[in-house]
Amino acid sequence: MTETRSVLILGGARSGKSAYAQRLAEAAEGAERVLVATGEAGDEEMAVRIARHRAARGAGWTTIEAPLKLAEALKAEARPGRVALVDCLTLWLSNLMHAGRDIEAEIGGLASAIRALESPAIFVSNEVGLGIVPETKLGRAFRDAQGRLNRDIAAACDAVVFIAAGLPTLLKPKNPPDLRLL
Fold first, then answer.
1. pLDDT tens track for 95-129
2. In this structure, are residues 101 and 68 in contact, taking their beta carbons and an 8 Å threshold?
3. pTM (two decimals)
4. What is the pLDDT of residues 4-46, one digit of tens each?
5. Which residue from 15, 17, 110, 123 has the highest number of Cβ atoms inside 10 Å of its Cβ?
6. Which are the catalytic amino acids?
7. Would 78 be classed as within a structural domain?
8. CB 177 within 8 A of CB 136
9. What CATH number is associated with residue 131?
10. What is the domain extent for residue 107?
């Protein structure tokens, strides 16, 4: 069985992605757990969501905030004896777009960082391209960029799991990986 170093967890809104990713990280016995958070509390609703996620994780987690410099945070925080959980790539992409960053370069940098990781990492991302075509130009640009991000990160990761209705489906590799991670 092949060692799994990196896992991408995809799914729709409220599909159970974060809970699944957390359980996967917590299954890495003896590993220090680090959450690399990309979301920022820009309004009350987001502040409540962040607080709910923090409470669900409980003790035993270190949180690093990386709303823009995700590849750099991974390079600094991912090391042997740790498992990193990045939640989520969708918010990171939104932050990049609002900051006017070079999206292709940022995605390429993250994919390279994933391939060079020395410790396990789990990435959470929304699959937004399965629904209706967004009405606005910005909405369509975001949907397209999210599709490219998911595709490129899926290629960089050892395993990809799709969550629908709380149920995981393994997309990559064809044979189930050892998801113990360590």
1. 999 999 999 999 999 999 999 998 999 999 999 98
2. yes
3. 0.90
4. 789 999 999 889 999 999 999 999 888 999 999 998 877 888 7
5. 123
6. 53
7. yes
8. no
9. 3.40.50.300
10. 6-172
